[in-house]
Amino acid sequence: MNATVSVSQLQDRAPAVVKQSEESGPVSISRHGKVVAFVISKAEVEGLLETIEVLNSPQAMEAIRAATNGQSESGKSLARLEEELTNEENG
User: Fold this and answer.
1) May I ask the CATH class of domain 3-40?
2) pLDDT at residue 71 above 70?
3) CA 88 to CA 62: how far, in whole Å?
4) What are residue 4's DSSP bridge partners?
5) Number of Cα atoms under 13 Å in the Cβ half of residue 27
6) CA dist., res. 81 & res. 37, Å (int)
7) Cβ neighbours of residue 76 closer than 8 Å, sequence gap 6 or more
């Protein structure tokens, strides 16, 4: 977390806290010294939702595992795919 503001500070300067979350990341909101909430930008939430969607997709996870192991969905190594792409661009 980049910053923490109290609930009363949030009430006094909500627009600035929202802008801060858009520019610098989530802002923690505290009450009596304990974090009770977060202000998170729309872009951050969209990124989290996209990540959840990918993690819930068996096909996407299989493609990630294959890529991590150096293989594409076609079974070709990433090095071979790069070589083919280079040949296409130069050919």
Assistant:
1) alpha beta
2) no
3) 27
4) 28
5) 22
6) 46
7) 84
Give CA separation, 32 vs 10, 18, 49, 76, 82, in Å: 14, 21, 31, 57, 56
Q: What is the pLDDT of residues 3-62, one digit of tens each?
A: 999 999 999 999 999 999 999 999 999 999 999 999 999 999 999 999 998 888 888 888
Provide the residue type at 90 as one letter: N
At residue 12, the 3 state secondary structure works out as helix
DSSP 25-56: --EEEEETTEEEEEE--HHHHHHHHHHHHHHT
Domain assignments of the chain as residue spans, ordered by start: 3-40, 43-90
The structure's pTM equals 0.63
